[in-house]
Amino acid sequence: MNKQNLWFFTLLSLVLVLGVYYITMPNDLLEKVNSIVDEKENIPVVEEIQEENVLTAMRVTKMDDRNKEIDSLKEQLTKEELSTREKNNLYEQLKYLNEVQGKEESLEKKIKKEYQLDCFVKTDNTDITTVCISDTHSTELANSIMRMIQKEYNEKKNISVKFQKK
Questions:
Q1: In whole angstroms, what is the distance from residue 130 CA to residue 119 CA?
Q2: Torsion over CA of 53, 166, 115 and 66, rounded to 10 degrees?
Q3: Which of 75, 141, 143, 162 is most buried, with most CB under 10 Å away?
Q4: Would you tell me how many other CB atoms lie within 10 Å of the CB of residue 159?
Q5: How far is the C-alpha of 43 from the C-alpha of 6, rounded, in Å?
Q6: What is the DSSP code (8-state) at residue 1?
Q7: Residue ranges of the domains in the chain?
């Protein structure tokens, strides 16, 4: 069998599978899909991002990144060719990531309690980024938040506080 015949049979098989799928698809599902497509073509969708959505988007992005890192560490941890020392190092990294996540959550709660601000906290080694939802952008408030965060750590951290308007 030559390449041309192979491609022909492959494409023919694909067309048959899609045809059978289309025919066996429930009519109500097809109508929903068509109505959604029609709505998207006719109506421009403009969605305002509220402060909750901004913070939620930041948290989801951070969680995705952390989960990828944790999955990578867990995958490496299951490799048999690693020495005990290397596995211990990977385990310590996993433990560190869990501690960082807990510390970030506690800082967010503490800022919410003390300053009545919704916020997002992200830690990268010695850098701590804080985004607070507030109409006022006060340097005094930023400095007091930075001092409060630094009190939670023994070693010096690079802390930044950004304000996002409501």
A1: 7
A2: 30
A3: 141
A4: 21
A5: 44
A6: -
A7: 51-164
HEC string of 123-164 equals EECCEEEEEEECCCCCHHHHHHHHHHHHHCCCCCCEEEEEEE
Q: Are strands 127-133 and 118-124 parallel, antiparallel or unpaired?
A: antiparallel
CA–CA gap between residue 110 and residue 149 (Å, rounded): 9
For 4, 34, 44, 48, 49, the CA distances from 41, given in Å and listed in that order, are 39, 11, 8, 20, 22
The model's pTM: 0.63
Terminal alpha carbon distance of the chain: 66
Task: Cite the DSSP H helix spans in the chain.
Answer: 3-24, 27-42, 51-77, 84-115, 139-151
CATH 1.10.3470.10 for domain 51-164, yes or no, is no
Instruction: Note the pLDDT of residue 34.
Output: 59
Question: Can you tell me the distance from the alpha carbon of 99 to that of 91, in angstroms, rounded to the nearest whole number?
Answer: 12
What pLDDT does 7 receive? 82
**118 in Cβ contact with 112 (< 8 Å):** yes
